[in-house]
Amino acid sequence: MIDTPYLLFLGDAPDALAAKVAQGIKDWRPEFALGQFRMPGCKADMGLQDMTLAEAKAAGCKTLVVGVANRGGVISESWVKVLVEALAEGFDLASGLHNLLKDEPVLVEAALAFGRKLHDVRVPEVDYPIANGKKRSGKRMLAVGTDCSVGKMYTALCMEKEMRAREMKATFRATGQTGILITGNGVPLDAVVADFMAGSIEWLTPDNDPDHWDLIEGQGSLFHISYSGVTLALVHGGQPDALVLCHEPTRPHMRGLPDYTPPTLQSLRDVALLLARVGNPACEVVGISVNTQHMGEAEALAYLQALEGQLGLPATDPFRFGAGKLVDALAAI
Amino acid sequence: MIDTPYLLFLGDAPDALAAKVAQGIKDWRPEFALGQFRMPGCKADMGLQDMTLAEAKAAGCKTLVVGVANRGGVISESWVKVLVEALAEGFDLASGLHNLLKDEPVLVEAALAFGRKLHDVRVPEVDYPIANGKKRSGKRMLAVGTDCSVGKMYTALCMEKEMRAREMKATFRATGQTGILITGNGVPLDAVVADFMAGSIEWLTPDNDPDHWDLIEGQGSLFHISYSGVTLALVHGGQPDALVLCHEPTRPHMRGLPDYTPPTLQSLRDVALLLARVGNPACEVVGISVNTQHMGEAEALAYLQALEGQLGLPATDPFRFGAGKLVDALAAI
Fold it and tell me: Cβ–Cβ contacts within 10 Å for residue B82, how many?
């Protein structure tokens, strides 16, 4: 658990894209994003108030989040200087960088000296149990994809936003670095030891109110041979009541695998449902989420309409056209 | 890679069952098992020559393998004394205990002083790659089970023995602690970090002669919700050409999961084949291996015959009745 709210550290970001994590926090948890900290040369701007460390502290920020990718895989000296000052000022630090904060002796020393925490969200901080498969109260939705990086996190976040607007009980459950920084907690599933993968997802989605929905961020794909095991741990650890199929229709091959063609949505539906029903015989596929960013609007709408006819399921691009259809489908369960 | 041959350390084993690992080595790699080392009170006996450390060294043993479970999760003082002497005598140590050799400061110090290695086979010693899904030369068989602990390791080992007797090229590929100690190498898959599971199996089963078979030890089950992700990583990382279905027919529920009924062999066949063909469209299910230890001989034979009729596949208990049928089926591919 990372203490909120945040001061977003944009460092010397060379462009807006490098500050993707900060953008995600600002888009999905604006109440956590009280201000931004930029260094000379920073080319990213979240449109938040620029704050000094002291100003951010006075405004109530608890954690400085590294919301930017570093260059060349090194945490530069100029960054370290700011991060040490932040610890001295009383902030915890949180980061999803490959280079861990905990591997920087200066930061470890300062954190100890000032009694602050270093959160490296790529590394599990919990001893997860082995999954026991027991049925939990409350409901769960899992986003499953035809491939990696097709919009599973955005689908779950869009659904959460729509459900909260409708005053439904819903919690996005992060399973990757960006999602964990956005929400302040979650499981870095790709870094969990094999035996504990499914158990970590049971831990993440415990008993809840009967009308509460956990919206579980998907990872990988059952059809992506590099990461399929991670995906199946989500399907069985999450015991979803509802699956939403996620797809990016313009992709020529599976991400990182030039010899592999993405499966059809029909194949994904059949395989995912078959496996999900091992953990929850009542599981249903309720809808389709398409990432249409590479399609014109008319093309996208026609594609979605055609899909609805072919699969008999509501289909939308929740980021572009809203998640209403998907939430309607959940509400009907 | 653990240096062979071995001196098998039986310690003060309270009974034969506690020395299961030593028994496995003696059964499957008798050429590695030159002698045994027993302490006062030891109730296990592999029928091997009892040797002092000096005698074993003179006989050519390279590694002292802890072939016995420890009591109460503690490496006792009397064990540590022997293990330090073994390091001083020039042996490496290998162990599959939950308590790691590397967590005993006295052993770490002695290993350093005498220039020897400590192999804790529960812990990966290699930085595995992420799977790339490329087709490798040579052939691969994977044992998949309706449940955990149904005889997948024994199935692969029995097949290897039969294939070597027929002068076919075959290598058992260990994916668990016992298998690694038996053969001297392998991947402790349940301890590998999620993102690298499938890659570790590609690493374990590299390019080989076109007529060479890797016989890959299975883990878990696609239907066991605690470990199914580990199993799918084997299916996709192994890219098997042949699957052998493994089953234990007398089990009332899935191991450790009282609420879950084991799947039928038909379900396992269909789901495993569907998923395996993502990685290798030519994959076939070639036979069935049944653990009949809880059945009388006539009952077992009748059960196997009935299965052959129902599934149209050769069925045997390879440990009890030989692996001939399964090897015939592989030879026909």
Answer: 16
B10 three-class SS: strand
The three-point CA angle A267-B243-B305 to 5° equals: 115
- Looking at residues A36-65, what average pLDDT do you find? 97
How far apart are the C-alpha atoms of B79 and B38, rounded to whole Å?
Answer: 11
Nearest chain B CA: its distance from A173 CA (Å)? 18
Task: Tell me whether residues A132 and B257 touch, CB distance under 8 A.
Answer: yes
CB A275 within 8 A of CB A240: no
A78-102 pLDDT tens trace = 999 999 999 999 999 999 998 999 9
Rounded Cα gap, residues B88 and A263, in angstroms: 58
Going by C-alpha positions, the residue among B268, B244, B202, B266 that lies closest to residue B333 is: B244
Mean pLDDT of A27-42: 96
- B74 Rama class: left (phi>0) / alpha (psi -120 to 50) / beta: beta
Q: Tell me the average pLDDT across A284-307.
A: 98
Using alpha carbons, list the distances in angstroms from residue B229 to A67, A219, B141, B198: 31, 12, 19, 10
Contact B35, B7 (CB under 8 A): yes
Chain B residues with CB under 8 Å of a chain A CB are 130-135, 189-195, 197-199, 222-223, 225-233, 235-237, 239, 256-257, 259-260, 263, 271, 274-275, 278-279
Contacts of A225 in chain B (CB under 8 A): 131, 133, 198, 236-237, 239, 278-279
Q: Which residues of chain B have pLDDT under 50?
A: none
CA-wise closest residue to A36 among A121, A21, A87: A21
B181: closest CA among B142, B153, B145, B209?
A: B153
Peptide bond into B5 cis (omega under 30): yes
- CA separation for the pair A20, A22 (Å, rounded): 6
Determine whether the interchain pair A190/B191 forms a contact, defined as Cβ–Cβ distance below 8 Å. Answer: no
CA B146 to CA B266: how far, in whole Å?
A: 10
3-class DSSP state for residue B212? Answer: strand
pLDDT reported for residue B69: 86
Query: Which residue from A minimizes the CA distance to B233?
Result: A229
DSSP labels, A179-230: HHHHHS----GGGSBGGGHHHHHHHHS----TTEEEEEPP-S-TT-TTTHHH
In chain B the first and final C-alpha atoms are separated, in Å, by 31
Query: Cβ–Cβ of A194/B195 closer than 8 Å?
Result: no
Phi, psi dihedrals of residue B11, rounded to the nearest 5°: 55, -135
Count of positions (residues) in chain A: 333
